[in-house]
Specification:
Elements (H helix, E strand, L loop, with lengths): L10 H7 L10 H34 L8 H28 E3 L4 E3 L10 H28 L38 H6 L12
Antiparallel strand pairs: 1-2
Helix pairs in contact: 2-3, 3-4
Length: 201
């Protein structure tokens, strides 16, 4: 039997707080499925399985949030809900732009509007991702400043060992070093690294 689902936010939260990304006419079912994706993928990878599971099971037991401590309510209302909302928008963007039918993948167009091209689509989605990652960084910062209030974040036991992220931002630099041992100097001298500019580490 699988874990029951609980929604940290709903579609109305997104439409009310992020109208620049989500028009009021967007299908609630589409947004709700994207919220679950954001919770299961983005939030769980951010805070780890144990803390994620604690939040979901507590909401299942009491959807009003009455089972949370003051610190948990604060981080949920001020940071986690915003993070989930932005990641849900990120997850929803492809389905808003195109729709998979039983015959093909089709691009939707309205009577009085025209879909944007892929460049504008990617630009907007990257903007949402940047905002999502910023809110993720606030989640990490708040937990690190209130260590004793979130023991689940620092506890990872059993088979479900999805550990929390150490950093909210993702990205990387490819270095062609076959030895696999990189130094600060390797990175500074790498092609396209801006050699000659100092690295503020």
């Amino acid at each position: 039997m699988g874990l029951q689902q609980a929604y940290i936010i709903d579609s109305s939260y997104i439409k009310q707080n992020y109208p620049q990304y989500a028009d009021s006419n967007i299908d609630d079912n589409l947004l709700n499925s994207s919220i679950l994706l954001a919770q299961d993928i983005n939030l769980q990878s951010l805070i780890g399985y144990n803390m994620w599971n604690y939040i979901i099971t507590t909401l299942i037991a009491d959807p009003t949030g009455g089972g949370f401590s003051t610190q948990y309510l604060y981080i949920l209302q001020n940071y986690i809900q915003k993070s989930v909302a932005l990641w849900a928008i990120f997850q929803a963007f492809p389905s808003i732009w195109v729709r998979i039918t039983n015959k093909s993948i089709v691009q939707k167009k309205g009577d009085d509007s025209e879909s944007v091209n892929i460049q504008i689509f990617n630009m907007l989605r990257d903007e949402v991702k940047a905002n999502s990652q910023y809110m993720d960084s606030r989640v990490i910062e708040y937990i690190q400043n209130n260590v004793g209030s979130f023991p689940e974040y620092f506890t990872n036991v059993g088979v479900q060992r999805i550990t929390p992220k150490a950093c909210a931002y993702s990205g990387g630099i490819y270095l062609n070093n076959q030895g696999g041992n990189f130094t600060r100097l390797d990175i500074q001298n790498a092609p396209l690294s801006g050699k000659g500019n100092s690295l503020n580490w």
